[in-house]
Design goal:
This protein is α/β, with parallel strands linked by helices. It is about 40% helix and about 15% strand. It has one domain: 3-Layer(aba) Sandwich (Aminopeptidase). The chain is built from 10 helices and 8 strands. The structure holds zinc ion.
Length: about 290
């Protein structure tokens, strides 16, 4: 049917509209608000399924990686269509898995990318300074206070704090303290109360999947990431010199599987014309994350 509006102006209004349409059309898709952004945008979670295996996906932690939002929603829609049509795989996944999806972790940042500093309200001067007075925000990754939301988690945050920008910036600034921002705190709280068995954070770009953190990941992570590679061609990378990310904290605290999936290859933002190429690789990764 096509509830998802495939547009390169995928801002938070579009997201709310599409989520409303999805939940109206598929009554088994439940929508929850897990918190609010700095500018008061709802942080929306979709839940599907009745099983015991708890899997979580999220997208658009980083503003100029917003293409991950419509990608995840399109996968959700195709999954829901499969359930409606009684397809075997989707029916089995529905009864075995409880899926949680937060498609846009950073709505203010995405809106800033799309519409410029006019939407920043009280933070207009801050974002212009943090953007080094560039007129466009195509390189912007942070939230509206210039904090990098994926540099905010309590997993050797101090290391990043010391070596990354010391002030609000379009990328990489870890903030005053871990979880100082409502968006990272909302994902943290959701994760704490949901007991996810496996989490996948979708970013761009590189066509790689990071799957380890300080050797605290469970042993099955290696074979699972191998399965992701088999269906997508994305290259597994065990670890890099990076801390304080969502999946780092998840692996560290829960000793469960956490993956950062870097969608596509090129320069962010990935061109909208490449959406379908990414969908062909992201969808099988998403399905595998529920199947295995
Ligand atoms: Zn990213």
């Amino acid at each position: 049917m096509g509830a998802i509006t495939l547009t390169k102006l995928y801002d938070s209004e579009q997201l709310k509209h599409d989520i409303y349409k999805l939940s109206e059309h598929y009554d088994f898709i439940k929508v929850h608000t897990i918190g609010y952004s700095v500018l008061g945008e709802p942080l929306l979670e979709l839940k599907i399924g009745e099983g015991d295996k708890r899997v979580h996906w999220n997208g658009a932690f980083h503003a100029n990686e917003w293409i991950t939002t419509p990608l995840l929603l399109k996968v959700v829609e195709e999954y829901a269509e499969g359930i409606i049509h009684g397809r075997q795989l989707e029916k089995e996944l529905f009864s075995s898995t409880r899926l949680s999806v937060v498609p846009m972790v950073n709505p203010d940042g995405v809106n800033l990318f799309m519409h410029g500093s006019e939407i920043a309200k009280a933070y207009k001067d801050l974002v212009n300074k943090a953007n080094h007075n560039h007129v466009n925000f195509t390189s912007w990754k942070a939230n509206i206070r210039g904090v990098d939301l994926n540099n905010q988690f309590p997993a050797h945050w101090e290391v990043e704090k010391q070596r990354k920008p010391q002030d609000p910036n379009f990328r990489d600034y870890p903030g005053e303290k871990p979880l100082s921002e409502p968006e990272s705190k909302a994902i943290y709280d959701l994760t704490q109360k949901s007991s996810f068995h496996r989490v996948l954070a979708f970013h761009s770009q590189g066509e790689v999947i990071y799957w380890g953190y300080q050797n605290k990941e469970p042993s099955q992570a290696k074979s699972i990431v191998g399965a992701f590679q088999a269906v997508s061609g994305y290259e597994p990378v065990h670890t890099i010199d990076s801390y304080a990310g969502y999946k780092d904290w998840f692996i560290q605290d829960y000793k469960r599987e956490g993956y950062t999936v870097e969608v596509g290859k090129g320069i962010n933002p990935l061109p909208w014309s490449t959406f379908n190429d990414h969908l062909k690789k992201v969808k099988p990764i998403c399905f595998k994350s529920m199947e295995m």
